[in-house]
Amino acid sequence: MGGKQLRFWLLKPKFEKKITIDQQARDDGYRFIRDFGPKSNNKNQFMEWTDEYINTPGSKIEGWTEGKVKEALHNYMRGRQNAKTLEYWPFTLKSFAPWFFDRILTRMLPTMRQHSITWIGRTRTGKSLGSKTVLFAQSKFEIDLAERADLVPSILTAKHLDFFKAEPLTKFKPGVFDDGMLQKMDASFLKAFLNPSEEDATVWARYSSAHFEQGAGRHACNNPYDRKVDEDMFAKMKTTKLWETSYSDFVKLIMPSFTAVDDEEDLDAILARTHLIVLTDNGIYHRVASTGKGSVDFIAWDTEPKDLLAPSQHAIFKSYKMNPQGHQLPPSFHEDSAWSQEALRRLVNGEQLPRGYIVYRPRSMVGDA
């Protein structure tokens, strides 16, 4: 073939580097899937929604693979079927009524890695709120101590043991067994769950097991207590002006929340593992975890509302309940959080809190409340 020849070849590397989505775009995409994706798949919603948005120009997930998006939707759906993760909480240790923080919590928080806290008694007095507030403070404390900037303070909450199977409780993400029918839990579960210092806290859950990391904060909340015993003990304390009750009477008071524990030695073992806060119609019984069987202290309610929350926090609580998705932190939150973390650091290290930290409750008309 004579003359000049012109040939064209399209050259490209054998192994072409894929164009990757930057981290911010990935985060935005997953957030879009989580917030706007379908919550169920009973009518093929996952397939149809994915097909629409991966092909929509300008979509947060435009060009994503179908399998990746559908897997994310399935994962989020499974997550909603297990223990709930809370990452927003507008309360700190400073949100508690000062007398409650001073006279009760300061005795329990120093051993938060070794002992759980069990909250029993009246509804609408702050059991769940109190447990979540303490656990959020503990989560932040451990995260800051380990310098884990990749984590945010969070807790797990569930009303049934099975829901703890999907994610183990850790020191960075503690949990609360909230109104989970504690009275139906046997001694083996209670001794494992309520003992954060246990090396092997793995308990049986339906078809599987639930694992709790050593040192992870654990709380339990439950309602039942013996009102008749409370009335009898309160009448006796008003007469004697001695604001404490015997160990045996205290056990009678809390037994409705431990009816599945048949053996007295098992109950003693449980009470050696967990601090107890019992909120009744007449006041608060509080006991630090111990093998001893000494008297249990009592604080009578004052004329103020029967509530563990400081009066200044009531508006914040109301706002949170009205719009829990609003995530609007109170103006003083960061300052109060810093106060709480410093108080917690001192307590864990065995230091005394300065007098300026505490505002003491006035003496009650019925005695030293």
Quick synopsis:
This protein is an alpha/beta fold and 369 residues long. The protein is built from 11 helices and 11 strands. It folds into 2 domains: 23-81; 85-357, no CATH class.
Polypeptide structure, described:
This protein is α/β, with parallel strands linked by helices and 369 residues long. It has two domains: 23-81; 85-357, no CATH class. The protein is built from eleven helices and eleven strands. The protein has helices at 23-36, 45-53, 66-80, 98-108, 127-145, 187-193, 227-240, 247-254, 264-271, 314-322, 333-348, and strands at 84-86, 116-121, 155-158, 175-178, 201-205, 208-212, 218-222, 244-245, 274-279, 283-287, 296-300. The strands form two sheets. Strands 1-3-4-7-2-9-10-11-8 form a nine-stranded mixed beta sheet. Strands 5-6 form a two-stranded antiparallel ribbon. The longest helix has 19 residues, at 127-145. The chain starts with 22 loop residues before the first helix and ends in a 21-residue tail after the last helix.
Secondary structure layout:
Blueprint (H helix, E strand, L loop, with lengths): L22 H14 L8 H9 L12 H15 L3 E3 L11 H11 L7 E6 L5 H19 L9 E4 L16 E4 L8 H7 L7 E5 L2 E5 L5 E5 L4 H14 L3 E2 L1 H8 L9 H8 L2 E6 L3 E5 L8 E5 L13 H9 L10 H16 L21
Parallel strand pairs: 2-7, 2-9, 3-4, 4-7
Antiparallel strand pairs: 1-3, 5-6, 8-11, 9-10, 10-11
Helix pairs in contact: 2-3, 5-11
Keywords:
single chain; 369 residues; alpha/beta; 2 domains; nine-stranded mixed β-sheet; two-stranded antiparallel sheet; 11 helices
Rg of Cα set: 27 Å
Strand content: 5-15%
List the total number of helices. Answer: 11
Give the strand order of the largest sheet, numbering strands 1, 2, ... along the chain: 1-3-4-7-2-9-10-11-8
Record field, number of beta strands: 11
Q: Quick one: overall form?
A: elongated
Number of domains: 2
End-to-end gap: 111 Å
Query: Could you give a short account of the major beta sheet?
Result: 9 strands, mixed
SSE series:
HHHEHEHEEHEEEHEHHEEEHH
Helix proportion: 25-40%
Unreliable residue stretches: 359-369
Structural class based on helices, strands and sheet pairing:
alpha/beta
| Average pLDDT | 88
